[in-house]
Design goal:
Blueprint: H1 3-16, H2 57-64, H3 66-69, H4 83-108, E1 131-139, E2 144-151, E3 158-165, E4 176-180, H5 186-189, E5 198-207, E6 210-217, E7 226-232
Antiparallel strand pairs: 1-2, 2-3, 3-4, 5-6, 6-7
Protein name: APC4 protein
Pfam families: WD40_APC4_C-half (PF23405)
InterPro entries: APC4, APC4_C
C-alpha cells in the first residue's frame, strides 16, 4: 500500500468510526455507521447519520415556492429514513391510488357470451395447450372487436376469427369462423405439387379490412416454404 492509500483509510476511519457520546443511548450504535450502508438497511429506525440538506437547490426551491411547498402532488421527503422505508411508503400510496380504479373497472366487467372452443378429458392430469396466438383488434369505424387465434392439435391449418360488437347488447353475423389454408397456394408456388399444406405461424390485423398471416409448409422436410399473405376480411 502506498502512503496515500493508508491516509485514505485512516481518514475514512476517523470520519465514520469516531466515538459519538450522543449516540450511546442508541441500541448498539456507539459510532457513526458508513453513510451509504445506512440507507440500505430494511429498518424503520431513523438514520444514524442523516444527510445534510443545507444548500440543496431542490429544497431551497420548494421552500421559496408558495404553491409547491404544500402540494399533494409532491411525494413527501423523509430525510431521517432509509430507502427501504421510503419504498414501502411509496408502494402504499401507489396501491391506494390503484385500488379505486380496480374496484370500479372490476364491477363494470361482465360476461357477454360464452363459446365452447374445445373439450378435454376430465381424467387428464394436465390440460394440453390448445389455444395459441391470441391477437386483439378494435375496429373503431364499425365498432367491432376481433380476436385472432389458432387451435393446435388437429386444426393447425386453420385460423379462427372471433368478432363481437363493442356494444354487448348487439350481435353480429358470423360471430366466430375459421379460415383453413390447406393447399390453396399450390398454383402460385408449385404447379406440380398437390400435397402442400400450410399452418399459421403468426397472424395480426394489418388494418380494419386486412389480416396478415405468416404461413409455414407443414411437410416434414428441410427448406420448408414460408409465405407472407394478406387476406381481406371480406
Amino acid at each position: 500500500m502506498t502512503q496515500k492509500d493508508i491516509t485514505f483509510v485512516a481518514d475514512f476511519l476517523t470520519e465514520h468510526f469516531n466515538e459519538a457520546p450522543e449516540l450511546y443511548n442508541r441500541k448498539g450504535k456507539y459510532f457513526n455507521v458508513e453513510r451509504v450502508g445506512q440507507y440500505l438497511k430494511d429498518e424503520d429506525d431513523d438514520l444514524v447519520s442523516p444527510p445534510n440538506t443545507e444548500g440543496n437547490q431542490w429544497f431551497n426551491f420548494l421552500k421559496d415556492s408558495t404553491h409547491l411547498k404544500e402540494s399533494p402532488l409532491l411525494f413527501p421527503y423523509y430525510p431521517e429514513k432509509s430507502l427501504h422505508f421510503v419504498k414501502r411508503q411509496m408502494e402504499g400510496v401507489i396501491a391506494q391510488c390503484l385500488q379505486k380504479p380496480a374496484d370500479v373497472i372490476g364491477k363494470s366487467v361482465h360476461q357477454a357470451v360464452c363459446i365452447s372452443l374445445y373439450k378435454v378429458s376430465q381424467s387428464e392430469d394436465s390440460t394440453p395447450q390448445l389455444f395459441k396466438l391470441p391477437f386483439l383488434w378494435n375496429d373503431k369505424t364499425s365498432n367491432l372487436h376481433y380476436v385472432l387465434f389458432t387451435m393446435l392439435e388437429n386444426s393447425i391449418s386453420k385460423i379462427h376469427i372471433l368478432r363481437r360488437h363493442t356494444d354487448t347488447s348487439r350481435s353480429v353475423s358470423n360471430g366466430i369462423l375459421a379460415v383453413e389454408f390447406g393447399n390453396f397456394l399450390n398454383n402460385s408456388i408449385n404447379e406440380s405439387s398437390d400435397s402442400r399444406c400450410y399452418s399459421c405461424l403468426d397472424a395480426h390485423f394489418y388494418d380494419d379490412e386486412t389480416v396478415t398471416v405468416v404461413l409455414k409448409e407443414s411437410v416434414q422436410q428441410e427448406g420448408k416454404e414460408r409465405v407472407l399473405a394478406q387476406l381481406p376480411l371480406s
